[in-house]
Amino acid sequence: MKKQPTILIVDDNPENLGVLGNIVSETGYIPGFATNGTLALTSIKEESPDLILLDIMMPDIDGFEVCRRLKQDATLAEIPIIFLTAKTEKDDVIAGLELGAVDYVTKPFNKKELITRINTHLELQAAKQDLREALAAKEEAIATKDKLFSIIGHDLGNIFCGLQGFAELLADEEIQYDTKEREDSIQMLIQAATNGYDLLTNLLNWASSQTGSLQANPTTIVLRDSIYRHVELQDNKAAHKEIEIVADVDEKLFVFADKNMLDSIIRNLISNAIKFTSASGTIRVTAKKIEEKLVEISVADTGIGIKPKDIEKLFKINTSRNYGTNNEKGNGLGLVLCKDLMEKCGGIIGVESEVGKGSRFYLRLPIRMQSF
Question: What local confidence, expressed as pLDDT, does residue 1 receive?
Answer without folding.
Answer: 54
